[in-house]
Specification:
Residues 126-314 form the Histidine kinase domain. Pfam families: HATPase_c, PAS_3. By secondary structure, the chain is an alpha+beta fold. The protein has eight helices and twelve strands. The longest helix has 41 residues, at 104-144. The chain is elongated, with a radius of gyration of 27 Å.
Length: 314
């Protein structure tokens, strides 16, 4: 019981021994654990694997080995254990003895590093996709040469500079989150596209924990509405509001909409519309990064509606 490692013995699927360290990790006292179903404390998604390994070990079908799984502590926190388990005889009956270490911090660190690597990869795609789109508009505007189009080109140049600054900020933050006012973020995006569409805004002040990648996601939705609406006069409605514990960002247009047979494909990396590149794939990846979701549905009487939902800041 003086071991600095968590130790347990499970027999007939129940705890028959736990040491002090396991009490500290789980928050349960020895009296609360002994005689209880051991698998009731395993994280639901891991129960099947842990139970199967236990049964195989008791039956003598599995040698000594180590593996990691999650447990749910008394306070509801999820913790990782990496345990080495073996079959023993305990009071004349087969049982499983396991000892190991708590690896919550290590596994969380590995997951954080994985997310950061994914973040930098996403960052590279955003840089290429968004800036190339802006440069295409600048080139076309310069070729046309009218004052109106030159002014539009200058706006896009400013947008490119701002994106490069955003990328620099994102690199410095390494994916760190900060509190953003979503209404202010949307207003700044819409200013860039005045003259290319008519906008109707209904923006409530809602704060979220995100970073500048959210700006790129919303801008992609607005740009797609302009590029793919296929109507003489593009009308875009943008709403920001709070619904329960979520921030809702809704972008609707009056275009031709998305054909039914394409709706399931538009967020895939392999899907591309003319001039659209990886836009919607990037939007979904960004929204996923902020623990949110995005959905598409038809606008009435015509057009498409994209709706982003991410956790709102309390």
């Amino acid at each position: 019981d003086n071991s600095s490692s968590p130790i347990l013995i499970v027999q007939d699927g129940k705890f028959v021994f736990v040491n002090r360290i396991l009490e500290e990790i789980t928050g349960y006292t020895r009296e609360e654990l002994i005689g209880r179903n051991a698998f009731d404390h395993v994280y639901p998604e891991d129960v099947e694997v842990v139970l199967r390994r236990y049964r195989e070990r008791v039956a003598g079908l599995r040698d000594v080995d180590s593996y990691s799984f999650r447990v749910v502590a008394k306070d509801g926190r999820v913790k990782w254990l990496t345990m080495t388990a073996r079959r023993i005889e305990y009071q004349g009956k087969p049982a499983v003895y396991a000892s190991g270490v708590e690896t919550t911090e290590l596994i969380n660190l590995n997951e954080e590093l994985r997310k950061k690597n994914e973040f930098f990869s996403l960052l590279s795609k955003i840089l290429r996709h968004d800036i190339l789109n802006d440069l295409a508009v600048v080139r076309a505007s310069i070729e046309i040469g009218s004052d109106e189009f030159l002014e539009r080109a200058l706006k896009r140049v400013d947008s490119i500079v701002e994106k490069i600054n955003d990328i620099r900020a994102l690199e410095e933050a390494v994916g760190a989150l900060k509190v953003l006012n979503v209404a202010e973020l949307v207003e700044k995006i819409v200013e860039t596209y005045f003259g290319e569409a008519s906008f109707k805004l209904n923006l409530q002040e809602v704060h979220v924990e995100a970073n500048e990648a959210l700006k790129s996601a919303v801008e992609n939705l607005i740009r797609n509405a302009i590029q793919h609406s296929q109507v003489p006069h593009v009308e875009i409605s943008v709403e920001v509001f709070r619904e329960k514990d979520e921030c809702v960002i809704r972008v609707a247009d009056n275009g031709v909409g998305i054909p039914e047979n394409l709706k399931a494909k538009i967020f895939e990396a392999t899907y591309s519309r003319k001039g659209g590149g990886l836009g919607l794939f990037l939007v979904k990846k960004i929204v996923d990064m902020f623990r949110g979701r995005i959905q598409l549905y038809d606008n009435k009487p015509q057009g498409a509606v994209f709706e982003i939902r991410i956790p709102a800041k309390l």
